[in-house]
Design a protein that fits this description.
The chain is mainly alpha-helical. It has 4 helices and no strands. It has one domain. The longest helix is centred in the N-terminal third of the chain and has 31 residues.
Length: 115
C-alpha cells in the first residue's frame, strides 16, 4: 500500500512540477524573449520545447550521491537513523520540483527588474 501511495505521489508531483516549470519558463520567456520580438509562447509549448532540449542533450550520468553519502557517513561519528529510501527520494524530488523553478523565477524577476 505504501508503494502505491508513493507512486501516486510521484505522479502528482511530476505533473504538478511540470506545470510549475512550464509556467516559470513561459514567464521568463515573456520577460526576456518577447522584448526581442520573439512571439509569446504557451506553457504547453514551453514544456514541449523543454522535452526536445532534454532529448537532444540527454547524457547518462552515474549517481554518485549514494557513494558520497557512504563516504561521509563512514568518517562522521553519529547515531544511525533508518530512513526509507523511497520516501526520502520522494521528498527530495518534491522539494526539487518546487524550489528549482522558484530559484529561476526569483533570479529572473530580479534581472527583469534591472533590465
Amino acid at each position: 500500500m505504501k508503494e502505491i501511495k508513493l507512486l501516486i505521489g510521484h505522479i502528482i508531483v511530476g505533473f504538478g512540477g511540470a506545470i510549475w516549470r512550464g509556467f516559470v519558463l513561459s514567464l521568463l520567456w515573456t520577460w526576456f524573449a518577447v522584448p526581442l520580438g520573439i512571439p509569446q509562447v504557451s506553457i504547453a509549448f514551453v514544456l514541449g520545447f523543454e522535452c526536445l532540449v532534454r532529448m537532444l542533450s540527454y547524457t547518462l550520468v552515474p549517481d554518485i550521491g549514494a557513494e558520497l553519502e557512504k563516504t561521509i557517513l563512514k568518517y562522521t561519528p553519529r547515531k544511525k537513523v533508518e530512513v526509507d529510501d523511497s520516501t526520502d527520494k520522494f521528498v527530495r524530488d518534491a522539494l526539487l520540483a518546487v524550489f528549482v523553478p522558484l530559484v529561476f523565477l526569483v533570479t529572473g524577476y530580479i534581472f527583469h527588474l534591472l533590465g
